[in-house]
Amino acid sequence: MRRWRLVLGGGDADGTGCALEGADAQMDAALAAVYDQDGREGQSRREGGLGASAPRVARWLGDIRTYFPSTVVQVMQKDAIERLNLTRLLLEPEMLEAVEPDVHLVGTLLALNRVMPEQARESARAVVRKVVAELERRLAQRTRAAVTGALDRSARTHRPRRVSDIDWDRTIRANLKNYLPERNTVVPSRLVGYARRQRSVQREVVLCIDQSGSMAASVVYSSVFGAVLASMRSLKTSLVVFDTAVVDLTEQLHDPVELLFGTQLGGGTDINRAIAYSQGLITRPADSIFILISDLYEGGVRAEMLRRVAAMTQAGVQVIVLLALSDEGAPFYDHDNAAALAAMGVPAFACTPDAFPDLMAAAIERRDLARWAERHTGA
């Protein structure tokens, strides 16, 4: 009954008849500050108990960190920012020092970047730096391992040096004509194996990121992955962000924090223009992977956008369209454009950050990405 009382929020109609005391009462007050309705039928507006008072917000931030785990704290902070319009308070350094850093907070700070007062900038950078460091710790090693393994496997040789280098699936397929029915076996006359790692650039990767406001989390994750990929000598990685303009941030890939502050969330979208610029970065189409991260709401010339994608695939570029690169579930996107891309063999799907390393491996090995998406995303 105590748990139901906390869920329902109290009042005569909750039916629990349960009174809260001590820490439970403090927890209930912290929840009520964000989630209690104003009681008027049909209204979705919340009347929070935080107002626009920085001290009250600071106390509330302390309370929720006391009573809830960090994952819940991040959700409550995000809801408070959206429901109670606390973005102005995030421009104050003492507020930034009190909040629990997460991807959504970074997205909010990037959106406020152009209006942020100078005294808050260093605190904002510290928040972004902490989140980026945590994401790199979580994702970098897995990404490097997956990409390196895929590059090794994608390089073929007919003289593998050791048994572990033999690609048995391809070797059997190549020698089916040598099947001996009486022995129920295949006698391989030609081996197919994985070549040893090369030091030269083996793949060109272009990340093309939509920086419209709805793509905030995707921008953060994409920038981190871009920095990780750029650190690998076997890849030549470029990163482009766009709204109605296109900005090449490749030179800042060594520092994902600076890269993120080079983005500008919000504004319109011209995907066609971004793809046109990205085409100019590709010098080896057959060895290139182009990753467009966008919800596909095109404000430019749709027919030209589709024509450019078709031209890239015909030239041999591995084209991947991610509707989102985040943990936020099913994204909003332009279904007509996604269907048009799928019709030309370019599946469009959302991808979680944890699945992205395997996606890169699948792309490098030129596996069927539509099948990969069905298996990993249920698309």
Automatic annotation (TrEMBL):
Annotated protein name in UniProt: VWA domain-containing protein
Superkingdom in the source lineage: Bacteria
InterPro entries per record: LolB (IPR050458), Uncharacterised_CoxE (IPR008912), vWFA_dom_sf (IPR036465)
Chain segments annotated as coiled-coil in the UniProt record: none
